[in-house]
Amino acid sequence: MAAETASGYIQHHLTNLTYGQHPVNGWSFAHTAQEAKEMGFWAFHVDTLAVSVVLGLIFIVLFRLAARKATSDQPGGLQNFVEVLVEFVDGSVKDTFHGRNPLIAPLALTIFVWVFLMNFMDLIPVDWLPKLAATLVGDPHLYFRVVPTTDPNATLGLALSVFALILFYSVKVKGIGGFLGELTMHPFSSNNIAMKILLVPVNFLLEFVTLIAKPVSLALRLFGNLYAGELIFILIAIMFSGGMLLGSLGGVLQLAWAIFHILIIVLQAFIFMMLTIVYLSMAHEDNH
Fold first, then answer.
1. Is the N end or the C end of the chain the one with fewer CB atoms within 10 Å?
2. DSSP bridge partners of 21
3. How far is CA 95 from CA 76, 121, 166, 282, in A?
4. Neighbours of 17 (CB within 10 A)
5. pLDDT range class, residue 3, cuts 50, 70, 90
6. Is-catalytic flag, 221?
7. Which member of 25, 101, 221, 281 is catalytic?
8. Where residue 206 falls among pLDDT bands split at 50, 70, 90?
9. What pLDDT does residue 151 have?
10. 45 strand-pairing partners
11. Predicted confidence band of residue 185 (pLDDT cuts 50, 70, 90)
12. Confidence (pLDDT) at 287
């Protein structure tokens, strides 16, 4: 495969199906990566949104089906799987969350399963779904990325939703005064009034950076790991066009990386869930 062809193949697989307002074409789908860039911040990544919604519906339908058919006599495989998963998440919440909030366990379960399903899309061969989408639409050059968590817009959206809950419960539990006190009276403090006033901007700077780092770290950690995994799968896929020997090596590498990547997709979903629980636990702690 020529270098420019390989480069184009990689570029095509890393470009989202984008819909937005183009300065020249108006509201339309982007036909090139440059057009997608020119649409600016408010463009929609249609593939990310569509795959995320479909996976969310699969999660809801499967768990709803398990709940409707739940029985204590002879539970089926789906019920056993769901029960193990629910008990695992519930145990993680009880061990980590020290407040009392009925929202936390369902939220943790939703995050873990939904993020796992989005990560799992990385194990589907890189050409299958894009070619299927291109065939259905009738456009062989259609852009279509199938792993939502390789899109920073998706991971940042998840992280900002968690961040909004952190702010909400921080104010609800501690009050406005308590929340602002945490931002301005820690980590440095003094009994001297003048010194305490002087330390306020220093404390605020340190605590504000710590606060903002929470959604950023949540989003970038998930995005970075899955983006790297997707890129490796794409690079391995290029090897299949290099002849029988190189293609055979690519098949071995693809299988090895897929097996290792199973650990990554589970671990990243677990980390996102656990950090969410930890951050919300901290938001519920009233430090006087």
1. C
2. 27
3. 29, 30, 19, 14
4. 21
5. very low
6. yes
7. 221
8. very high
9. 97
10. 18
11. confident
12. 62
**Does residue 28 have an active-site annotation?**
no
- Name residue, tokens 């593939």: 47
**Catalytic pick among 52, 92, 170, 225:** 225
Confidence of residue 57 (pLDDT cuts 50, 70, 90): very high
- The domain segmentation of the chain, as residue ranges, is 3-284
Q: Cis link prior to 187 (omega < 30° from 0)?
A: yes
Catalytic residue, from 189, 217, 241, 248: name it. 217
Angle between helices 104-120 and 244-284 (to 10 degrees): 170
Transcribe 158-205 into DSSP letters.
HHHHHHHHHHHHHHHHHHHHHHHHHHHSSS---SSHHHHHHHHHHHHH
> 177 Cβ partners below 8 Å, 6+ apart?
none
pTM, whole model, 2 decimals? 0.93
Residue 44 bridge partners (DSSP): 19
Residue 217 designated active-site: yes
Q: What is the pLDDT of residues 90-138, one digit of tens each?
A: 999 999 998 889 999 999 999 999 999 999 999 999 999 999 999 999 9
CB within 8 A of 14, min separation 6: which ones? Answer: 145, 230, 231, 234
Q: Which residue has the tokens 């009925």?
A: 102
Angle (nearest 5°) at CA 231 between 226 and 236: 125
Report which residue type is found at 285.
E
For every residue of 222-279, DSSP letters joined together read HHHHHHHHHHHHHHHHHGGGS-HHHHHHHHHHHHHHHHHHHHHHHHHHHHHHHHHHHH
The CA–CA distances, whole Å, from 107 to 25, 49, 206, 213 equal 41, 20, 29, 21
Burial of 159: CB neighbours in 10 Å, binned 0-12, 13-18, 19+: buried
